[in-house]
Specification:
The complex is a heterotrimer. Chain A is built from ten helices and ten strands. By secondary structure, chain A is an alpha/beta fold. In chain A, α5 crosses α6 and α6 packs parallel to α7. Chain A is globular and about 50 Å long. Chain B is mostly helical. Chain B is flat, with a radius of gyration of 27 Å. Chain C is globular. The chains are: A alpha/beta, B mainly alpha, C mainly alpha. Chains B and C meet through α1, α3, α4, α5 and α6 of B and α3, α4, α6, α7 and α8 of C.
């Protein structure tokens, strides 16, 4: 198995407050990692440190052997286009059409001038169309993003991440803006697609039940420290107690 | 087979996007064409570049940058005058704006539709006429001096203040008004107990905003002999002492920065 | 009940935070008691609070008196000012000499005014967009130098009255439409720049994050995440800015910068009151027309691109 992502002793914080206090783990080619933990544990910061939407203060993030923390802005953008990201609030551009939203996933591959004119290649458009068909939104190509329901928006978000041809998917609380039934559908879709495209996934999720059902590995985070790592089956009451002790107290 | 169907749809979408781009380009070209025309009229037909090049424009510009610091001590009093004028003008504007807002608020306008139209008309006239023009009108009525300046700025402020107040009145909660009507309150009592308390924050915020603008305006009121920094500005201009002019403008900037600081804290105190 | 906050600087000091707090505590203590009937000595405002209210009122009146005295304002001229305006307008300015404003040269100056306002607005907005980008705390690519300089520049443009800009530029460039257009452009940068900046600062950060995560560069973030969110607001602001610039453009000529204002100055200097009246009337008409047009355009464009 090849190691897609290796995080070593990752630290982050701002204004003198430490949010991540040295977290390490490895994600291999077909892994589906769930990061669970109480709110404020640093889950969201951890995910954003991987593609440096939040700048870490120390440690290493090795993406296929390259330390992302050592890259300059231009190289970082090149690395980012290989890392797809799916967001809690979908973060679609609401005034643009579904097609334009998916095409923004190709920005890293499109020259600045061409992108200012919204000129994307024919291959990009047909790939976007194929992906929209795949996530079940083939009929909604010309709809504006803000006319869609929450579940549909998240599917657009998934298509946008996939059109990057990512070698890693970062997923930040994909279901907390959705109702339970849609949540399961979205998680199932992410899992299917990850298998289909052979992309490893690193997913924040506060819902332990969904995490154990859909993921292959679980990391328990509490107060910036890794408290648990293992298979979903190993996540017993005692482990949960340890991860969520702060909330229980 | 399926791949081909996707490609055909993609080609149709790409064609649509090209059409959209062409239309956008056309719109930009229209805007740009109008710009070119204006440039031709303003910068080519109307401007004599040869004369400008031969003139002392560069030297004039340079003399603006030679600040006349000797003027500074003489600017203290006019600066205070300018601040006072702006404040008086804002208060006068408020005084005049309240009845106009009363007329122009759709929900309480005393004679219904007809007085509403009158109120809105007064607001439009106040805003449409530039303060220079108001200044000229008031000079002919009260003569040169600070009064003409204060009145001109006050009347010019009415439009904005009364529009905001009228909108605030239209947005008040109907509950308190109903309550006062229910206990048998008169129209005036409704105004004072039901509406006024609700719009006080809006009124104060608007006044602070307008005060800021009136400081800027008061610099131009030197034209109607209204004293303050504006008068010094026009005097220095007449003396062709450009360094002095620049110093006056610096004083205006300082006053406005000070005003911005004061209004920042005043706004915080109000909200 | 708290004392109404008042704007007067003096009043602000009088109603300092501490005073308000004690007044508030006082009221709260009274509310906790259970007065079955109105106490004999009840007043709407209890001792410290009533003092502040009277002090604030007194301070305001004293301030007004002081200001009027200091500025040598002769209040005796104030009564009947409306009557005098009516008399002046009726006797000196009426009837307006309509022929003066239907003359071809004058109508041409109306067109010139429009051209000046159009070019000034387009150029001003073209410059205001990058400045607003630099001056917005959430999107600025240069948080120290660029941000500070852009803020300062926008503020300087706003702080100096458009007529002062006109006078200065006429002094440098001589009479003509060019100094007027440049003055209006500076005014436009100050006016639109501030509103543009505020619109950028109000965007949702999520889409920005999403575009950055796909590997987009700054320009792409601006075009795909910022622009779609501010487009409607900016369009409305731009149209409104044109309206305000046009209003100023009608009078920049008064200081030698071309357009309708030039004729206003000329007839004021000739003391040709009937011509002045006609010009003022025509200015009011075109300004109101511009305002109606801008309101109509804003409504329709907003509906079209919303």
């Amino acid at each position: 198995m090849t190691v897609a992502l290796e995080v070593r002793n990752l630290r982050a914080g701002y204004a003198g407050r430490e949010i991540l206090k040295g977290v390490s783990f490895q994600v291999e080619a077909d892994d589906f990692f769930a990061i669970i933990g109480p709110s404020g544990a640093g889950k969201s910061t951890l995910i954003r440190c991987v593609n440096r939407l939040v700048e870490p203060t120390g440690g290493q993030v090795l993406f296929h052997g390259v330390d992302l923390l050592s890259l300059d802005q231009a190289r970082l953008r090149e690395a980012r286009r290989n890392i797809g990201m799916i967001f809690q609030e979908f973060n679609l551009i609401e005034r643009l059409s579904v097609m334009d939203n998916v095409l923004t996933g190709r920005l890293g591959y499109t020259g600045t001038l061409r992108s200012l004119m919204r000129m994307f290649t024919a291959e990009d458009i047909s790939q976007a169309l194929a992906l929209l068909d795949r996530v079940g939104l083939g009929e909604y190509v010309d709809k504006r993003a803000d006319r869609l329901s929450g579940g549909q928006r998240q599917r657009v978000g998934i298509a946008r991440a996939l059109i990057q041809n990512p070698r890693l998917l970062l997923v930040d609380e994909p279901t907390s803006s959705l109702d339970p039934k849609i949540s399961r559908e979205v998680m199932a879709l992410i899992r299917e697609i990850a298998r289909e495209f052979h992309v490893p996934v690193l997913c924040n999720i506060h819902d332990v039940e969904l995490a154990t059902e859909f993921c292959t590995h679980v990391i328990g985070l509490q107060d910036g420290v890794k408290k648990f790592e293992g298979r979903p089956g190993e996540l017993d009451a005692q482990a949960l107690q340890e991860i969520y002790s702060m909330e229980v107290l | 087979m399926k791949g081909r169907a996707v490609d055909i749809r993609a080609a149709a979408i790409a064609a649509g996007r090209r059409r959209g781009r062409a239309l956008r380009l056309l719109a930009y070209l229209a805007i740009f064409g109008a710009v070119l025309w204006s440039v031709q009229v303003i910068m080519i037909a109307d401007t004599d570049w040869a004369r400008l090049a031969a003139s002392s424009a560069g030297k004039t510009l340079k003399s603006f940058l030679e600040f006349d610091y000797r003027l500074l001590p003489e600017l203290v009093d006019p600066t205070i005058d300018t601040a006072l004028m702006a404040t008086l003008a804002t208060l006068a504007g408020l005084l005049l704006a309240l009845p106009v807002a009363w007329l122009g608020a759709a929900n309480i306008s005393p004679l219904g539709r007809s007085s509403y139209v009158v109120g809105r008309f007064l607001m439009t006239v106040s805003r449409s006429v530039h303060e220079i023009v108001w200044g000229l009108i008031f000079v002919s009525a009260v003569g040169l001096g600070a009064l003409a300046g204060v009145l001109a700025m006050g009347v010019r402020s009415v439009g904005f203040i009364s529009k905001i107040i009228a909108e605030a009145i239209e947005d008040v909660q109907p509950g308190p008004i109903e309550a006062i009507r229910a206990v048998g309150g008169t129209r005036l009592q409704v105004l004072f107990y039901g509406i006024l308390p609700q719009i006080v924050p809006v009124v104060l915020g608007t006044m602070i905003f307008e005060w800021d603008i009136n400081i800027r305006r008061s610099t131009i009121m030197g034209l109607v002999g209204a004293g303050g920094l504006g008068l010094v500005f026009f005097r220095q201009m007449a003396m062709l002492n450009y360094g002095g002019v620049a110093t006056v403008i610096l004083a205006v900037l300082c006053l406005i920065i000070l005003g911005e600081i004061v209004s920042y804290y005043a706004r915080k105190a109000v909200i | 009940m708290r004392a109404k906050p008042s704007f007067e600087p003096g009043a602000l000091i009088a109603e300092g935070a501490e005073g308000e707090r004690t007044a508030f505590a006082h009221g709260a203590a009274a509310a906790h008691g259970t007065p079955a009937r109105i106490p004999a000595g009840w007043h709407r405002f209890r001792f410290p609070q009533s003092l502040y209210r009277y002090a604030a009122l007194l301070a305001t009146l004293a301030f007004i008196a002081f200001a009027i005295d200091r500025l040598n304002i002769d209040l005796e001229r104030l009564p009947g000012v409306l009557g005098r305006i009516a008399v002046t307008l009726g006797q000196r300015y009426f009837p307006p000499n309509i022929e003066h404003v239907t003359h071809f040269d004058y109508l041409h100056s109306v067109l010139e005014t429009m051209e000046m306002s159009y070019l000034a607005t387009v150029l001003g907005i073209a410059l205001a967009i990058p400045l607003a980008w630099l001056a917005s705390f959430n999107q600025t690519p240069s948080p120290r130098i660029g941000y500070t300089l852009a803020r300062l520049f926008i503020m300087a443009c706003r702080s100096v009255h458009e007529m002062i800009w006109t006078i200065l530029l006429v002094a440098v460039l001589g009479f003509g439409m060019l100094p007027g257009t440049l003055a209006l452009m500076l005014f436009c940068i100050g006016f639109a720049g501030k509103l543009f900046t505020e619109a950028i600062e109000a965007i949702r950060p999520g889409p920005v994050e999403a575009i950055r995560a796909t590997g987009g560069n700054r320009a792409q973030v601006f075009v795909f995440a910022v622009l779609p969110q501010v487009r409607v607001a900016w369009t409305g602001i731009s149209i409104y800015t044109w309206d305000v610039v046009f209003r100023a453009a009608t009078v920049v000529g008064f200081f030698g910068a071309g357009g309708m204002g030039w004729y206003l100055r000329e007839s004021v200097q000739r003391i040709a009151s009937h011509d002045v009246a006609a010009i003022l009337l025509s200015i009011i008409i075109v300004v109101v027309a511009a305002e109606l047009f801008s309101a109509w355009l804003r409504r329709h464009v907003a509906a079209a691109i919303a």
